[in-house]
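Give me structure tokens for this 123-residue protein.
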Amino acid sequence: QVQLVESGGGLVQAGGSLRLSCVASGLTFSGYTMGWFRQAPGKDSEFVATILRSGGSTYYADSVKGRFTISRDSPKNTVYLQMNSLKPEDTAVYYCAAGLRPAYREIGTYDYWGRGTQVTVSS
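Here you go.
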């Protein structure tokens, strides 16, 4: 049974930092592209960042480029999202996703999802 478990969310002031983690089990981690998405209250889910299976290529939403960094640790089956210079508009539930061959910005092309972790940025 595949499980993705996110952690690291919380309440932070604007300008602060958080690091999200997502631990994967029940799959061959190195074979999956890993992504982060988020959903703010009253809004649709949106792409945040993705890292390819090889770990060599990363892609970001324009809204987080230069502030967020995605990385993966294959021996630990874990993907991270380092979030710096947080803004109130970053407030959302953040979800981890795994896909064999996703169109990396497209939510519907990922195979597995975590339950999410709440990030709240106060002004």
